[in-house]
Amino acid sequence: MRAVSSRDLVDLLHVIEWDVRKLRRQTLFVAMRTTWFILQVIVFGTSISLLVRSFPGLNYYDFYLLGVFTTLVYSVSIARGYEIADEFDEGIVEYHLALPVKRSTLALGRVLGGSVASFLFTLPMYAFIMFMIRPDNVFYVLVSLVAIYLFSAGVVGLVITVVLSVKSTDATDILMGVIDALLVRLSTVFYPAPIIAKVLPYYYASLANPISSVSDFLRVLFLPEYAVYASLPPQGQVAYIVGLAVGFSYLAIYVISHKLEAGGWR
Fold it and tell me: pTM here?
């Protein structure tokens, strides 16, 4: 194993900082997104909770809040990872490749920077969700933040891997659209597993879906009564979350380190 020098760590922090600093240009957008999210969960969330039949011992509105927040983290992480496609057109990727920074350091920095930026972007919405749910255990809040960050890192890694492997804007758009549609819809973000078990293909797809694991894990933390509805035991959910983060982060680092070349989509 190669030794990691202090210069590598400094370079890594600079790459992460570069990704995170882009948030400064999005301050107004974050404020608008937060406002819209609050309106959505208050107006639409309340309305749909009145329409959905209640589940014994479970408040569907709280169930909905944690589900819709999971989809928010997912969509923000997707957008952050997809920025690398635009960077090809702007020449930023080639500029990065010309820097005196190791490929592995650059790759790890892009994954960590993108996931940190996504995590910070969603924090205002997370604070609002916690205000609505009012958790009584600070430790669970910390655990949930770790789970959210790991999920974001996995999604950013997934998008970077797909974008840099396909190397085609049109093909990437189509493939990401299909992945997005399948992952969000074939999950338990809006319906508990026992309900969708009535359609077995849907049910088994949701069990293998990391979005289900994250949303259900957050619910088990903050809604103990949800444990009887969860798709997997907490250990299984944690395994999915960690596996997503480690697996796709590694793939993204491998693609950037070994497959990425200057000169655009080549």
Answer: 0.88
